[in-house]
């Protein structure tokens, strides 16, 4: 199919290359999923724990107010405490979970008041007091016992010492929060969260948080919903996996009917003409590699706090780079460097899709996007540094530290980032629009565009997380980004990008790629959209949200554990054998990284994800090292490897053949995979198992305490991580950085030399990635699989 | 015996078992015409598809065992390191016996897997 058309004749749209049934099924499942998600949102708004206007003691004394609670949430976010410890189980894992911490300490203080740990009467009285819900809706007043009020006063002093002392070594900067009003406000916030965790929801026999955290002192144990829906979730996983295997075994859904009998000749990458915008992506990939290296370094710093809280090899790092700051940067940089690669890959791919030159000014716009990205990254990171120290006054959430884990960046930077992504979509549209005009809406060019468009749209929903909203509401919108954006829509974009790369390389038919994409949409919509609720089991959302999350998130895991199909969807069905082509396949390492993506999707997202997915497991496990185990394996293993894979694909065209180093690519590939496997198997997984055991055996409060985290056994496991991290950083990220430098150096230079020889812009054939599809024998004639010679997407 | 020793020994043994599983999983054929998951479909097609099976190893499916074995080897090395580090912390005779056995088994497994990694890749490295 020629991509050039007469300017006077409007080209007809290419017909739909996939059966309407696929499109309808995907549409219906997605619609159903989003309908349920909206319902979940409504339930969340309706059923969140109330924030009382005032809290008074039984004797009528004011304890704290609703304003204190809201201001306390601001203190918690502004000073980066969610990147130090957690609230309702959500946040970081060095510091305590402040809900569990306050609840346990307050219960101990009240028990001491009533007779001590040996008194059964005292124990029962504590349970009764904490579980009784004395919130009066009409007066919006919460009444607590005099003993609970006294505990609040005592704990205010305790948190003042934790946050404001120069002597306490806990990973925060010395004297992090010294304002007594702010300390009192944040203690109010913790106290309110602890009340919501223990007090029974009206009409129910479990708390607003479904009895989380586990705390025997107040009678908190797993609710019936947590147990029953865990069982049903397991049944859904096993049944769904079996059904999918059965379906794939029985029906030829993806159109395999025989081995394809074409041979491709891949064009030597340096003979493929690059457009100016494609050359600009060399700078994007350099930025990607630099941000990745920076992320590994701050990651090493944050890890060191877990190994040695006292100092960084003798340097008092907490004075300048406390744990909550380096952890914030590590998490933000992970999102930034992966996004940078995805943005660049999208720009790089467009001329290959359209086989047209860029529209005028595309390269300048690409540079502008890169500049905007640099501004957002630098501005947000510096803003977080200043914000954690209390800068920006009333504008703290705009320019400083907004403070939600994963959405730490100031609102201003968050908006700019969203605008940047919209700008990126505009760039893609400019390049694609003529091609889109000739395609059916469900063919690959449109799917590519829709998948790209979805990214800023879904990310923008995170703007609705406001520091002034109740926690449960902020969590709902936060996970639109953390789950829906990262785990669903980035996954969709990934699938489309990877499928398209293989279509452009000629190793898969477009019809098959389309079916894989729609199958992915179906499987992830069935599970992933409603499955977002698996993050909301214990954050104040009602039990119905727990049920929906547990059941549907099992379906999300099914495609991830379906290794064979996942491997296929990435490394191609009926793939061309490397040796069959008379010219070498130029993208060995890009494909190797994609193979790694398939592996880590299975292990990191599937196995390690489901390990912590059941409500009954999450009940004891949330906020512990098994969560970090899954997060590292999935985020780096899937999106990290993919981002590097995209870079390898583009760099193959940017770096001349005589400069391309197989050794560097191989070193980076194996170092990243070995380093990642090392940090999981040596440290995160065993630590997580130990911590989970301790949580069940001794108590969640104890398992999250610094005393446990810095125990000898844990310290040994943390230190043993060092060799793997060195391999990851030195062998993994440094070679990649060097290769991207070469991409910048040679990409521009090479084209300057070529430009001196060539007087015409590259023609359409020079933009193709392969030539001469030779047909050795007639292909099987079925509607699904027939390809016409020369058809390559 | 110290509980920590029992945990590390048990965990290291689990890593060895997992590495064996990973290595074996990597040898499962992911080619569409050989994968077990398509057995029902191949039966439905009858002999039609059989003659078209490629005789040479399919790239990139042939890389899958390499990656799995490589990661399995990392798991085995992790087991060795954990056992040795634990031995340095706890080394009463029963602990030495237990951890030593685990470390020795892991070392033997590592040798085996290293050999498999270095072997030339053929279609036989992927189970048919």
Give the number of helices of chain A.
Answer: 25
Distance between the amino and carboxyl termini of chain B: 46 Å
Largest sheet of chain B: none
Radius of gyration of chain B equals: 20 Å
Most extensive chain-chain interface: A-B, 44 and 43 residues
Number of strand segments of chain A: 10
How many individual helices of chain B?
4
What level of helicity do the residues of chain A show?
Answer: 55-70%
The chain-level mean pLDDT of chain B equals 79
Q: How far do the termini of chain A sit from each other?
A: 8 Å
Number of strands of chain B: 0
Strand content of chain A: under 5%
User: Which residues of chain B sit in consecutive blocks of at least 5 with pLDDT less than 50?
Assistant: 51-56, 123-128
Largest sheet of chain A: 4 strands, mixed
Rough outline of chain B: elongated
Rough outline of chain A: globular
Can you put this structure into words, describing what you see?
The complex is a heterodimer of chains A (793) and B (128). With 793 residues, chain A is mainly α. Chain A contains 25 helices and ten strands. Chain A has a four-stranded mixed β-sheet. A two-stranded antiparallel ribbon of chain A has the order 3-4. In chain A, strands 7-10 form a two-stranded antiparallel ribbon. In chain A, strand 3 (86-87) and strand 4 (90-91) form a beta hairpin. Chain A is globular and about 85 Å long. Residues 1-6, 256-261, 563-579, 755-760 and 774-793 of chain A have low confidence and may be disordered. Chain B has one domain. Chain B is 66% helix and 0% strand. Chain B has four helices and no strands. In chain B, helix 1 (3-26) runs antiparallel to helix 3 and helix 3 (63-89) runs antiparallel to helix 4. Chain B starts with a helix and ends in a 10-residue tail after the last helix. Residues 51-56 and 123-128 of chain B have low confidence and may be disordered. The interface between A and B is large, with 44 and 43 residues.
């Amino acid at each position: 199919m020629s991509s050039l058309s007469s300017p006077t004749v409007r080209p007809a749209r290419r017909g739909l290359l996939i059966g309407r049934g696929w499109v309808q099924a995907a549409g219906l499942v997605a619609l159903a999923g989003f309908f349920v998600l909206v319902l979940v949102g409504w339930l969340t708004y309706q059923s969140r724990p109330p924030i009382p206007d005032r809290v008074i003691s039984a004797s009528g004394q004011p304890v704290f107010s609703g304003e204190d609670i809201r201001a306390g949430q601001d203190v918690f976010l502004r000073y980066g405490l969610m990147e130090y410890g957690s609230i309702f189980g959500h946040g970081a894992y060095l510091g305590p979970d402040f809900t569990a911490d306050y609840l346990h300490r307050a219960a101990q203080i009240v028990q001491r008041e009533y007779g001590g740990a040996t008194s059964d009467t005292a124990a029962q009285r504590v349970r009764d007091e904490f579980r009784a819900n004395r919130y009066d809706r009409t007066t919006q007043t919460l009444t607590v016992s005099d003993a609970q009020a006294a505990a609040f006063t005592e704990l205010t002093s305790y948190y003042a010492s934790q946050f404001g002392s120069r002597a306490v070594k806990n990973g925060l900067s010395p004297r992090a929060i010294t304002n007594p009003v702010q300390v009192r406000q944040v203690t109010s916030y913790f106290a309110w969260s602890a009340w919501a965790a223990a007090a029974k929801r009206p009409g129910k026999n479990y708390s607003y948080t479904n009895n989380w955290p586990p705390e025997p002192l107040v009678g908190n144990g797993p609710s019936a919903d947590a147990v029953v829906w865990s069982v049903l979730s397991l049944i859904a996983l096993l049944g769904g996996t079996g059904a999918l295997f059965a379906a794939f075994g029985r029906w030829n859904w993806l159109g395999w009917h025989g081995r394809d009998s074409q041979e491709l000749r891949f064009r030597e990458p340096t003979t493929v003409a690059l457009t100016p915008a494609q050359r600009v992506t060399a700078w994007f990939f350099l930025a990607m590699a630099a941000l990745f290296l920076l992320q590994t370094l701050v990651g090493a710093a944050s890890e060191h706090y877990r190994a040695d809280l006292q100092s960084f090899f003798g340097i008092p790092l907490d004075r300048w780079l406390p744990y909550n700051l380096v952890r914030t940067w590590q998490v933000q940089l992970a999102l930034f460097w992966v996004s940078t690669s995805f943005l660049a890959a999208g720009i790089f791919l467009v001329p290959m899709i359209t086989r047209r030159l860029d529209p005028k000014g595309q390269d300048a716009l690409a540079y502008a996007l890169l500049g905007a990205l640099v501004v957002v990254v630098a501005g947000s990171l510096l803003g977080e540094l200043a914000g954690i120290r209390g800068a920006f006054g009333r504008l703290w959430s705009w320019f400083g530290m907004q403070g939600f884990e994963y959405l730490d960046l100031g609102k201003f930077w968050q908006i700019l980032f969203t605008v940047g992504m919209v700008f990126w979509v505009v760039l893609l549209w400019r390049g694609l629009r003529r091609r889109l005009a000739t395609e059916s809406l469900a063919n690959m060019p449109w799917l590519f565009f829709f998948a790209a468009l979805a990214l800023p749209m879904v990310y923008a929903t995170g703007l609705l997380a406001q520091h002034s909203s109740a926690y449960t509401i902020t969590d709902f919108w936060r996970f639109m980004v953390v789950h829906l954006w990262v785990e669903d829509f980035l996954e969709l974009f990934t699938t489309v990008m990877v499928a398209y790369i293989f279509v452009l390389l000629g190793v898969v038919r477009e019809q098959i790629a389309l079916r894989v994409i729609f199958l992915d949409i179906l499987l992830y919509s069935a599970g992933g959209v409603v499955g977002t609720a698996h993050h909301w089991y214990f954050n104040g959302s009602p039990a119905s949200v727990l049920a929906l999350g547990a059941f549907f998130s099992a379906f999300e895991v099914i495609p991830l554990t379906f290794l064979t199909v996942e491997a296929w969807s990435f490394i191609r069905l009926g793939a061309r054998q490397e040796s069959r082509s008379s010219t070498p396949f130029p993208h060995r390492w890009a494909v190797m990284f994609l193979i790694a993506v398939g592996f880590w999707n299975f292990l990191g997202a599937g196995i390690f994800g489901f390990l912590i997915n059941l409500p009954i497991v999450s009940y004891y496990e949330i906020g512990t090292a098994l969560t970090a185990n899954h997060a590292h394996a999935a985020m780096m293993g899937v999106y990290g490897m993919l981002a590097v894979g995209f870079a390898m694909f583009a760099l193959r065209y940017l770096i001349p053949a005589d400069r391309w180093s197989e050794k560097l690519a191989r070193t980076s590939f194996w170092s990243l995979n070995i380093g990642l496997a090392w940090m999981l198997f040596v440290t995160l997984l065993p630590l997580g198992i130990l911590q989970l055991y301790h949580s069940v055996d001794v108590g969640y409060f104890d398992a999250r305490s610094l005393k446990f985290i810095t125990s000898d056994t844990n310290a040994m496991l943390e230190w043993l991580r060092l060799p793997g991290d060195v391999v990851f950083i030195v062998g993994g990220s440094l070679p990649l950085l060097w290769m991207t430098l070469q991409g910048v150096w040679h990409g521009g230079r090479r084209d300057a030399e070529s430009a001196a020889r060539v007087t015409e812009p590259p023609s359409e054939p020079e933009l193709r990635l392969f030539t001469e599809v030779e047909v050795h024998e007639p292909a099987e004639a079925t509607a699904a699989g027939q390809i016409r010679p020369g058809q390559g997407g | 015996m110290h509980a920590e020793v029992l945990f590390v020994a048990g965990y290291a043994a689990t890593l060895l078992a997992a590495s064996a599983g990973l290595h074996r999983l990597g040898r499962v054929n992911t080619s569409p015409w050989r994968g077990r998951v398509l057995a029902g479909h191949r039966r439905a097609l009858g002999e039609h598809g059989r003659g078209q099976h490629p005789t040479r190893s399919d790239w990139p499916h042939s890389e899958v065992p390499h990656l799995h074995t490589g990661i399995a080897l990392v798991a085995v090395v992790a087991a060795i390191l954990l056992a040795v580090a634990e031995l340095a912390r706890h080394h009463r005779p029963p602990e030495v016996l237990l951890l030593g056995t685990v470390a020795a088994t892991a070392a033997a497994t590592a040798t085996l897997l290293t050999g498999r990694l270095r072997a030339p890749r053929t279609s036989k490295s992927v189970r048919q």
